[in-house]
Design a protein that fits this description.
The protein is mostly helical. Helices cover 65% and strands 0% of the residues. Helix 2 crosses helix 7. The radius of gyration is 21 Å and the shape is globular.
Length: 191
């Protein structure tokens, strides 16, 4: 009878997870999801980038209105927690112009990254981060579904961009299909 070392065990992955998150064959599923989420971000970001109230002569005024609405919800005890309202009031509101540019161009860049399949996991992470920020501010809209889809895309970072630029970009960066690790090289030389 063999006793396994209880401090380190490799737990096998179930076939569905292995397919969805590790197989290039699942790339077409992630392509559909990527295009949907990416389109939502590009259209939203483009509206903001081309709006005077976000990035033009009146930059920051749209975000000020959004933040003031969230603060009103917090005061009435609805949908916005005290800690987040404090962050909005003390950090975002005084820097509304900077945050307006960050939101507008951030949305656009997230959308382009997802549509092109370039650094998909990173783009999805920042998209999910923005969705969570909007949810904390009491804005429901499409944020819950986009947050869920972004989370799945983050989990599928290795193959979500297979039908996109990640197929070539990730190996150039050395992950996950690219260069051999130094331990692989050492093992090969020993043989």
């Amino acid at each position: 009878m063999q006793i396994e070392n209880s401090t380190h065990q490799i737990i096998p992955e179930n076939p569905l997870s292995r397919f969805l998150f590790n197989s290039s064959q699942a790339g077409w599923i992630w392509l559909i999801i990527r295009l949907y989420v990416g389109y939502a971000w590009v259209t939203s970001g483009w509206k903001k980038v081309t709006s005077d109230a976000w990035t033009g002569d009146k930059a920051g005024t749209a975000l000020q209105g959004f933040v003031k609405g969230a603060l009103a919800k917090a005061e009435s005890g609805k949908d916005v927690t005290d800690w987040y309202a404090g962050f909005l009031e003390s950090v975002v509101l005084p820097n509304a112009k900077v945050f307006g540019f960050m939101v507008a161009f951030g949305e656009l860049l997230v959308g382009l990254g997802l549509i092109l399949g370039l650094l998909t996991g990173i783009a999805a992470f920042f998209g999910g981060f923005m969705n969570a920020s909007f949810l904390f501010a009491g804005t429901l809209s499409t944020n819950p579904i986009l947050f869920i889809l972004a989370t799945w895309l983050v989990l599928a970072w290795k193959n979500a961009g297979w039908y996109g630029l990640d197929r070539w970009a990730l190996p150039l960066l050395g992950t996950p299909w690219g260069r051999k690790s130094s331990t692989d090289t050492i093992k090969t030389k020993q043989l």
